[in-house]
Each structure stands twice: as structure tokens, then as C-alpha cells.
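Q: What structure does this chain adopt?
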Amino acid sequence: MVKAFTFATIAFLLVSAVICGVAESTAVSGPIIRLQQGWDNAQEQIFYHTPQGTVILPASWLAALQSPDGQPFMDPDHMRRLGFIADDRSTANPYAWPIGFAINPAKDTGGVETVGLTCAACHTGEISYRGKTLRVDGGQAHIDLDGFKKAINEAILATGGTAARREAFGQRAVQLGFPADRIGPEFDARYRAVLDGTPERERTAAGMTFAGPGRNDALAVIARVLFNYALGVPANTNRATAPVDFPYLWNIWNLNWVQYNGSIRQPMSRNIGEALGVGAITHFIDPGTGALSAEPERWQTSIPVRNLNALETLLESLKPPRWPEAVLGRIDGVKARRGAQLFSQNCAGCHGIRALAGSKSEEWSVKVLPLTVIATDPMQATNFRTTTYDGTKLGLSNHTDAATGLRVVTDAVRMQAYRDAQIPAAQWGTFDGFDRSNIITSPCGYKARPLVGVWATPPFLHNGSVPNVFALLSESRPEKFLFGSTEYDPDKLGLSQAAAPDTVTFDTTVVGNSNAGHWFTDDKTRPGRIGRRLTDDERYDLIEYLKAATYADYPRTVVNSPDPEPCVTQSVTTAGVQSATFNPSVVP
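A:
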């Protein structure tokens, strides 16, 4: 069990959540249309609101919090501007908060209910077209996490900045269930932490690439949270210059590597890393002395591994979205058939399904293409590969690479969580996900995954630097475009460029935002050339095929072994030679 704590001791981490009183859901421009992805309403609610152990604030605090203008922080219009998707009140969502907010039981988080984010916040999308809204379960969200963090910091500073506002907030929080004897000192400590941390946040933001709606530098966030805040080593910073799109989740369980750079092998390790990065409670160190805590407390967290396993299992039934002809227009069958041939000739070599023979599950080998071949923006792969951290507190080098550090931490947290949850050792492999070992690598490239349903996931490339598929298949792409709106362009498969109140400009000249690479061109000297120039008609034929593609007609081959990863020794990625299991008891 996670020991009791006060909210003054929780680091205000890089991803923060918000709340509202018992606010009603935000109105949308039309009825929500589901895309027949295999989930019923009950399964959707499980995905949307099952807690994953991330903690932002006590639920009563968030319900009482007001923005600097005096409006409830979770005012529906405010949350919509930050990109969150409204949801109705339900048993799983008693406060009618947006998709991706979950209540942690009081018994697990210090005696009071808390609220945190779930994977659904970043991996549930919507597409709008002519007044109708399509829900894309497992798709790319449009939330602005950095804007969200900034807004909640401003709300806490405004609340604590005057005696009257602080008093009114405290009264509201107590009425909503927070202990009266704790509200004063614990809010004061949180306010002071936010105030004192403002200079550091401003310095960090100055060196970051603006992410905006729908993007986050996830691996950098996780590494900084773990190695800087959770370990108490301020020198462990990194370059948050590689924001990426939130990846879509259907058939992610089939892939033998996840993350855009193909760096993580095990489902449970991936999900634990996500929860740690988004604000799970840790006890790695004594907050007073900075020294490592004694075991087993050192590796105990607020992460409910049974919930993570249930959510991962649920994802196995999630299907890619089907193109809704009644909303987005009919598919041209003649063009789609021509497009299927073009796809087989020009795309399937990388994006086709490569089923691994003899795998315990339906596992697909994904090709990880070297940066020298694909030539898309290198920052995400390069930053993860080259940034090192002082890991001496964990018995590691003072120049520990992110892959090694993350493996050590997620292994220790995972095994302690299994013990605390009283999961029999015989079931650990199942909870890990198909008995996959916790291998974390740092390839110098990006993976190419199958593209069924990709039409519903603009913008494109790993960093979201191309607004639509037509531009992706072209010899030139827009240097700047609008993003942040859910309005869709069904002809070019991507973002509409109509101005909207919440859109911002994507600038591809900024570090981490390059739209180069993955070129179809006759210029054989251009870096990242992967195929010949396509005519406009051929591009539209390919677009029509991507609208229509299903796994029934998708290119598929069977391979006998996983594809090698660039810049990674074969011994690490070969199924017969796995990384050693980390034993937390040997850490000093």
C-alpha cells in the first residue's frame, strides 16, 4: 500500500489537471457519431474514466478552484478551449468532467479522493464536419497540455494571492469534503511551491519547443519527472524540443515496439512510464533529506496495476474507425482500387503488416527506419538517445542514458506493484503483456506502423508537421498551417485550414517541427526520398484507398524474426536474447 501523504508533498509536475464543480458537459455543434470501433458505452466509460494512479489535486480542491477571472476552472467553455472533450455524468464520471479525468479512491491517496488524468485524455479524438462530430476512440486528442498546466498554475496563484479568495476557496473545498484541519496548511504549501517554482518553469518553457494542441514531448516529460523531480536531482534536465502527436491506439498491442522511435517493448512498462510521467505518487526519496527511501517503500507508487492491465486488455477489442460515408462522403471504389495497387507498390514495404511467425499473440514486427533513410525531424529520437542523467542514486552511472534509467525504474516499480496488489507470480507475465520482457532501447530512427484508420488522425508525421495526407504525398509542403481545430478536410484527409477561435499556427521552421523527409520525389539527391514523384491523380487514389482500407484487404506478410532496430545491437532485440530482469533489492 502507498503510505499516507499530504498534498504539500506532491511535486507539481509537468502535466497538470483541472476540475470543476459539478459542471454539466459542454455542448457540441451536433450529435456525437460513433465509428463502430467495437466498444459499447460501458466499455467507453471504462476507458474514459478508470483511474491510473495519476494525482493532480484533491477532487474537492479542483471542484472549488476558480480561474483568475473568478469563473469555475472547469467551466465547460474553458475546458473546450483547452481541447478537452465533454462527457456526461455517469457512475464512472460523477462530476461530469471531460473525457480523461478519473477519481482515485480516498483509500489509495491519503484519505481523500483525488483526481488525475488517464490515457483517454490524450488518446480520444474528435473530427467535426459541417456541424457533425465524429468520436474517434483511441485517436489523437487535441488537448493543450502545456496550456492546461499554465492555466492551473495561474488559478492557484490567483487563489492564494489574496486572503479573501483563499478563504472562499477553503470554504468551498471543505464543503466538498476536504478535511477542515488540513485545508489551510496544505493549500498554503501548494501555493508556495507553485510560487517558488515559477522562475524554474519560465526557464524551462523558454528552452522548449511550443507543443500546442494535440502534441507533447512525452519521453522528455517522463524522463524529467523521474530523474529530476522524483529523484530530487535538479541537474537532471533535458531538451523538451521534440513534441510529437499523440499516437493512435488501435492495434497498438500487436506492435512489437511502441513509441515513435520504437523504444519500448513491454505494455505494462509503457503504461507505468506514462503514469509516472503524468503525476503518479512516488516515494523514491525522503523529501526532507533527499536520500533514497528504504525498501519496499522506495518503489511503492499510487499506480493500480490491475487497472492498467484491464485497460490494456480492453484495447485489444478496439477496432480502427471506419470511414463514415453518410457524413464525410462516399468512397470512390474505382479510385480506391487503383490506390490499393499504388499502396502495395509504394507503401506496403514499410507500412504493411509483418506478422511474426510463432508469436504468443498476434504480434507484428514494425520496421524502424534509420534517420538517414527517412530524414524526418530527428529531435525526438536523437534527444532520447543522447541525453544522459545522473543515476548514481540508483546505483547507476552519472551519465545514465534514458533507456537504461527508465528500464531500471519501471522494472522496480512494476514488481513492487505486483507484490502490493498480491498478484501471483505465475500471472506476472500475463500482466506484463504476452510475457514480453521489459526491453527499452534507443534507436536512431522512427517506426512505420500499419495505416488502417490513419485517415482519422491528422496532422501527420510523428511531430504533426504536415496538415493532410495530400501534402504528405507531395513534393512540397506548407511551411506554416493552422492546427488546433477539429474541423476536417475529407478531400485531402486532414485538417481544415478555416480559421477558428482556438487554432494556432504551426511553424515548421522551429526546432523539432521540421516537415522534411518521407518524400515522394524524382529528385534522387533529396534526403528522405522513399519513392518516385506521384501525380495529383495518384495522390487522390491513395487517399481513397486509405479511406476504404480494412485489415481484410491490407497488405500482409509473415516474417520469421523481428526487424532489426537501427543503432541497436541485435542481441537486445532478438527474441532469444533478452535483457536481464532488474532486481530492486540490489539498488543501494
